[in-house]
């Protein structure tokens, strides 16, 4: 039995004008990715990101995108010059394992903990 011929993507590009036409040819409805159009000021976008951080204690791309009331993570990255910069604007700074082992890294972590709880004395947060 002969192997079926597998055609490359260019064959389909030449035969159809777009993906919708391909779906139509095979009698299927083209799936639509849900689009989230949330237009917020920078301040409001950061406030909502900060609220998420306060609730969860951390931030990441997936967590942001799971929230229906937040803009997409790529929106934060584009607006604020990267996710790390958006995170920093709400007080979430990621430290690497190497940074946490250094005195400077431990001091940064202590400062972040103080800032989160609004304390000024390291003994208030058990540092």
Summary tags:
0% strand; 127 residues; 8 helices
Helical residue percent band: 40-55%
Shape: elongated
pLDDT under 50 segments (min length 5)?
none
Report the end-to-end length measured between terminal Cα atoms. 73 Å
Number of strands: 0
Class derived from helix and strand content: mainly alpha
Mean pLDDT: 82
Helix run count: 8
SSE arrangement, N to C: HHHHHHHH
Assembly of the depicted chains: single chain
Sheet-strand content, in percent, reads under 5%
Radius of gyration: 24 Å
Largest sheet: none
Task: Give your account of this protein's structure.
The protein is mainly α and 127 residues long. The chain has a domain at 95-127. The protein contains 8 helices and no strands. Helix 5 (73-80) crosses helix 6. The protein is elongated, with a radius of gyration of 24 Å.
Topology:
Elements: H1 9-15, H2 19-25, H3 42-56, H4 61-65, H5 73-80, H6 83-89, H7 97-101, H8 103-117
Short description:
54% of the residues lie in helices and 0% in strands.
